[in-house]
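agent: user wants the full assembly modeled, not chains individually. Plan: 1) parse entity lines 2) check alphabet per entity 3) run joint structure prediction 4) return tokens. Steps 1-2 passed, two entities, 784 residues total. Proceeding.
--- entities ---
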Amino acid sequence: MRRFLFAAAAPVGALVVTLIITSIALILFGSNPLEAYGDMISHASKLETQVDILNRATPYYLSAIAAAIGFRMNLFNIGVEGQYLFALLIAAQVGSLVALPQVFHILLIMTVAMAVGAAYAGIAGVLKVTRGVNEVISTIMLNSIAISGLIALLQQRWQADQENFTSTTLGTNPIDESGLMPNINGLLEIFTRDIGQGKELTGVLLIAILVGVAYHLLLTRMRFGFDLRASGLNPFAARAGGVPPKQMIVAAMCLSGAVAGLIGMVELADTGKFSPNPIKGLGFGGIAVALLGRNHPGGMVLSALLFAFLDVSSGILQNTEAATKEIVNIMQGIVLLVAVVAYGVTKRIQTREEARATAEALRATEPAEVVA
Amino acid sequence: MKWLQDQPAWIRWPIYALLGILLLTVVQSVSDTERLTATPTSREMLRWAVPIFLAGLGGLFSERAGVVNIGLEGMLILGMWFGAWGSIEYGPWIGLAIGMAGGAIGGALHAIATVTFGVDHIISGVAINILAPAITRYLSDEIWASPTTSPSTESVGDWDVPFLAGGTIFGWESPDILLTIDKWEWWFVSDVATLLRGLLRGTHWVAIIAILLVPATSWLLWRTRFGLRLRIAGENPSAGAAQGIDIVRYKYVAVIISGALAGLGGAFISTELSGLFQGGNSAGRGFIGLAALIFGNWRPGGVLIGALLFGYVFGLDLKDLDGTASHALLLVNTIVLVGVAAWAITRKRKADAILATILGALAFIWWVAAEAVPNWWSNILPYVLVLLVLVFFAQRLRMPAALGQPFRKGDT
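--- prediction returned ---
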């Protein structure tokens, strides 16, 4: 119970501080914070909005797990952004070239996406272990190389209709219906009413849940996950314990990239092609979600939902004009910064308490030795 | 080579620069481009290099005090916005100062998180990089009714150096010596003059300030008590604390200076280069500044060289619409990689030599096979260059000993 309170205090506190700061920001520019928050909450209580939130939380969650796999062993994969966009492009192109039965078609597309993500992230891992290149810098550079170089090139080359550039023909060749992940509206409608407004709950949500469970099992039940955490906590001790540090780095980067490859599947299921302007920022957002959720499979669910809720709320703020819609981005940024500070503080308090508890326990058991 | 290494820096670096220009001239004589040593290229190089350098110098202050600052990009973005806002409200010079203050606020946030609360430096930096664009979007939308663009700003302007580049003194137009030499069209000599002229004509005041910051920083960090203490905070904070130095204060000061310098770089982008604030205009130059810092081995002169190198590639790309100059650059890459391979052989570094030879061969094959290189290649070349530099030199660098480690008062 005490542990739970400790874990919950920091994020709840961070949320409160964020609300205070954003309220001040809103008041400064003449908006009524209560009105804005009210609009956001009443909007989010609609079923259709909740579908939107889940659709956005799904890629955030996948992106967060991709980042968290790295964080767990002190590897900073800042390149999730480039990895998922590149994987999305290749997967969309490969998917459009083949016609297969539905299950195999979808599996093929997902496998390609994961392989591309893993390979691209793997470059940073290999550079780190063979040449000592810091992965933070290399993944940032690989982001730029992917986005302004490789994607720009291949997008041109794979443009579906080379002559007519209308908004419907822009992008890669559309994937056959069999390659698109079906929506799972039916699953949700068992519990609630029919979903209106043509909203579709993405089927990738189920994949994200599976990935979350797999991540949990990996860290708590599997040898590889234990090695991963050990390398993160103390690489020297892990090495002495027989964990090969170099292989672990490359493996963790590849695994992180493979999960990153899945992020784009949500958009692919929706549009069926690589559109000229895919949703960007999910990679950086995922890093934030992972940090806010403390790399915990459950914690990241909550933070992904929070970030998705804020993203979706920007639309309603624009409609009701209760506040500038950009305030939601501020809220995301502030809640992240305040939360990482709050985690730092609770960690210190926890360490101090543990030290005190240990000292007391020692005093109770071995009084003679202390005197001697 | 040995003789060269014994010379003081002010002799050594100009010679290196001349050797670099010689290489460009040689390559240019066998290819059909004149842009490698053209005046617009070097002007564009300086324009790109200044923000990269200022961000890198900001990183230098922070990392010399032991705080990794990946939030430079965010601080640069804050500087972009606040610089533009200040310039619109109070005029260009005050605008630059406000831009610095904006960056310094980002630095202060980073210092509070990392120094006071012991947050992991990279995590805090990532948080600032996410927060900063959000803040600028919100403020832009509230103040200029558009999340990404501001009205046009006023610039502090530029200056032509008299005599060398034909600047005016009290209304009298001095001769343009470099232009004269340029017109002689002597091999190499005129190329040096043209490149130099790009740096000395229409030179932004901020660029001049930035260049002056190199000796200023060297003096401040290596010749004063303040600098010694700041570097102790990055090398061995416990030893410094034992001597009675307030390590926490020095780290704070360093990180805030770091943010201010990145902010100045950002203000330069918005007020001097684009003439308005535009979201996304930072183009990752904060990150590239970090790469320049690593390339420059955590030394001010090295950061400047790194920034100019990356700036050259960016600037050339901007002026090279048909891809012929970037094509010629492939040959430069080949020669440099062969040089790296030769260097690696003398140092008995087999892996380096093999890798450099393979990459050099690839660049050469491409150079032979193609007439011009496509657009996408020149777009990513700067980033590839950063990676290549790190691949070959990352292990030879020496970063501050206590970089990235948390420090708490009373710890030993």
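agent: reporting back. Chain B touches chain A through 48 residues (CB under 8 Å). The two ends of chain B are 45 Å apart (CA to CA).
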